[in-house]
Amino acid sequence: MPTLTKLFTMQEASQHNTKEDCWIVIDGKVYDVSSYLDEHPGGDDVVLAATGIDATDEFEDAGHSKSARELLESFCIGELDPSSPSIPELEISSKKQPTEITQKLVDLTKQYWAVPVTIVGISVVMGFLFLRRK
């Protein structure tokens, strides 16, 4: 008979991201490593940086020993829920109407377009006159 474990979403696991309450996700399992942070040979900041994500690659890239892997299993509190998305869905919104400030900027640009064009025109004419004098 299979062992029943508690299921967590990535969102739930990512909320435990402090030194006092630190969960990490590796290979689909959720680990509460809060009590181990001070003892971690790489420092607590390395572990804290791996919260809120699937830290499998980071764990594998560090080249952990067999004893480190066995120690990790003692902190297992459950598994990642396979039915929940690992990345929260983004909310897609429709194009919004311009705000008051942006609308004023557009209106000013339409009204005073001649000013920068005039400056450029005068600069070009002055450049030709200056070059002609030489």
Automatic annotation (TrEMBL):
Does the record bear Ribonucleoprotein in its keywords? no
Bilayer topology term? Single-pass membrane protein
Which PANTHER family would you find in this protein's record? CYTOCHROME B5 (PTHR19359), CYTOCHROME B5 HEME-BINDING DOMAIN-CONTAINING PROTEIN (PTHR19359:SF25)
Family, similarity comment: Belongs to the cytochrome b5 family.
- List all membrane-crossing ranges: 112-131
Q: Which SUPFAM superfamilies match?
A: Cytochrome b5-like heme/steroid binding domain
Q: Which UniProt keywords apply?
A: Endoplasmic reticulum, Heme, Iron, Membrane, Metal-binding, Microsome, Transmembrane, Transmembrane helix
Protein localization:
Endoplasmic reticulum membrane; Microsome membrane
* Record-given protein name: Cytochrome b5 heme-binding domain-containing protein
Q: Where is the Cytochrome b5 heme-binding domain?
A: 5-81
Single GO MF annotation: heme binding
Cross-referenced Pfam families, in alphabetical order?
Cyt-b5
Cellular component, GO annotation: endoplasmic reticulum membrane
